[in-house]
Amino acid sequence: YLVGVGRADCTGPVAQVPLMGYANPSQVGGGLLSRLYSRAFIVAEPGASKRVVFVSADIGMVSQRVRLEVLKQLRSKYGELYRQDNVILSGTHTHSGPGGYFQYTLLWITSKGLVKPALSSIVNGIVKSIDIAHENMKRGRLFINRGTVENSQINRSPFSYLENPESERNRYSSNTDKEMVLLKMVDEDGHELGLISWFAVHPVSMNNSNHLVNSDNVGYASYLFEQEKNKGMLPGEGSFVAAFASSNLGDVSPNTRGPFCANTGESCDNPQSTCPVGGAAMCMAKGPGDDMFESTRIIGHNIYLKAKELYEKASQEVTGPLSSAHQWVNMSDVSVELNATHTVKTCKPALGHSFAAGTIDGVGAFNFTQGSVEGDPFWDQIRDQLLGEPSNETKACHKPKPILFNTGEMTWPHPWHPDIVDVQIAAIGSLAILAVPGEFTTMSGRRLREAVKSEFDSNGTPGMNVVIAGLCNVYTHYIATYEEYQVQRYEAASTIYGPHTLSAYIQLYRGLAKAIALNVTQELSSGPEPPLFNVTSLTLLPSLSAENAPATKTFGDVLEEVRQGYREGEIAEVTFVGANPRNSAENATEHNFLTVERYSNISSSWRVVLNDASWDTRFYWSKGSGGQSNVTIEWHIAAGTEPGLYRLCYFGHYKKKLSLFHTITVPFEGSSSAFQIT
Fold it and tell me: CA separation (Å) from 354 to 128, 215, 350, 373, 501?
C-alpha cells in the first residue's frame, strides 16, 4: 500500500464554551490540561485511485455539520479523491472538549448555540491532518494484532446487559468487550509511521466537575505513545501518529471501582442506580485513582501498555484490495425483516425519561432515575405545555419507552434530531472498519460485528477482521439491543429510533458488506442527502469586549510569584494578569498558551522543555470584574525532571478599544521569576 499519517491541532476555544458530553450547563471551559488533535491515516492502492481515509479526532463526537463541511473542503482541494464513501471521521468521545459544532437543535441548545471558532477549529484541524497525511504518502505495510485489556472498564448498565438471552451471554466471558484491535503502520524500510487502536471504553475518567479542556484517558494513551516514539520532541510534534479510537463503548465506563452514594459511601449498584438518601443524583462511579486526574492517567496508561505490547508483536500482515461503501438512510423510517413473516419499523427520534437521569459517570438533574418505563405526570405535563405532546403513533412506536423529548416531531428553529444518517464500511484488505453513527452497547456491537462477518463469509470473503469505529459522521446517541431497550436505562432511553434501531443497522450494514464482498459498491443507492441548515451564529456566549489590567499593572505581569526552589513531585505555580483565552483561539488555530523553559549554560539562553500540550502542565483562566481576569499556570514536576534553573511563561491576547466601534487584538507575554529544581 501507499500509507500516509498526519496530526493537527483541533482544540478551539478553551474558555466559556460548554464542554460537550455530559450536557451539564454549568460545565464550561476554564482552561487547558491537554491539547486536542485530529489524527489522519490514508491507505491507497499503488497506481490505483482507490483510497481509504480514517480520522480519529479528540472530540466528543463527529457532527453532521463537521462532516459536511470537511467533505466540502476536501472536494474543493482534491476533487473526487476523498468522498463520503471513503472518508471515515470518528470522535474519541472525550467529554472535555468544546461543544458548539452542531446543527440539530437538541445539541445546539446544550452548546449555547453554534460556536463558529469551535466548529472551524475542528473542521480545519481535520482537513489539515488529512492534508499532512496526503503529502506524506509513501510505500508501506500494515500489520494487525489483537489482545485483551484488563482492569480498565466496567459495564455501567449490568442490569440491562442481563436482559440479553442467557444463551447469548454464555458465549462471552465478560459483560464488556475487553479486546483491543491494533493496526500498525511502517514504511517499506521498516521505519515506524503510526498506529490505530480500537478499544471500547468511555473517555469519562475526567468527570463533569472538570473545566479544563483535555482528551481524557484515550488521549493520554496517544500522548504516551507519541512521546515515546517522537523522542526529544514537544507534545504534538514529531512524525509518529498514534490514534486511540472509540468503538462500541455505549455501556462501558472506565470508572472501575463502580457506583457509590456520594453522601454515604455505600454501593448503589442497583437497577435504578439510586441511593436511599438523595436518589439517583447521589449515585456516582469512582475511577481507580484518588482523583479524576490520577484515574485518567491510570486508565490511559493501561491502554497504552497493551497497545505497546500488541504493536511490538504485530506480525499478521494486512493485504488485499481496498474498498468502501456508504449510504445515507432515513433512520426514522426503515422497515426491518426480522424473519420471513415478521417486519418491524424504526421510529421518529425521541428520548425517554431515563435520558434525563444521566449515568453513574455523569448524573442527571431533578428526580429522574434510570429504568423508567412509566412516564411522570408532572414532567409529561411540562413537556406537553413547552414542547408539545408526542403523537400517538410515536408513543406506540417507542413502547415501552416513556417519551420525554419528542425530538422527531420538533422542528423549531430547525429539526431537533437527524433523520438522515450515514452508514459506512471501509475495507483495507482483510480489515473491515464499520463506521457507526453513535454509541453501540457491548452486546449491540457484538451482534453487529458477527452479522457483518457472516455476511462477508457467505459472500466469498471469509476471515475478515471486523472492527467498530464509534461516534462517526453524525451523532444519533445510543444503540441498545431490543432486550436492553425493554428496561429503559439511560442507554435504552437514548436509543432514539426505537426498539428496532439495532436490527435496522444490522440489516443496513449487512447490505454494505455484501456489496463490498461481491464488488458491486457502485450499485448501492446513495440515499437521501442530509440537509445543511443555515444555523444562526447567534450564541449565548458572552461577547468578547475590551479588557483591562489592574491599576499599575499590565497584561502578563505576575500577580503571585513562584517559590525560589522546588523538588520533583511538587507543583510550581504562578498567577498572571490575564486575558480571555478565546481571543487567542479566534486569532489563530494553534496558539500555545504556556511554556516551561530551562536555562542552558552552554548556549546562555532559555530552551522550551514543555508546552501547553503536556499533561504535566495546567492552564487556568478565571474571570474577574471590570474586564479583568487572571491566568494561573501550574507545572506538576514529574519524577526524573532534570535539575536546573527554570521559568514558566504565558502567551495571550487581549482586546483593546481603539474607538467606539473598533477593538483590536493585541498579543502579549509574561514570565515568572527563575526558580531552581533540586
Answer: 39, 27, 12, 8, 18
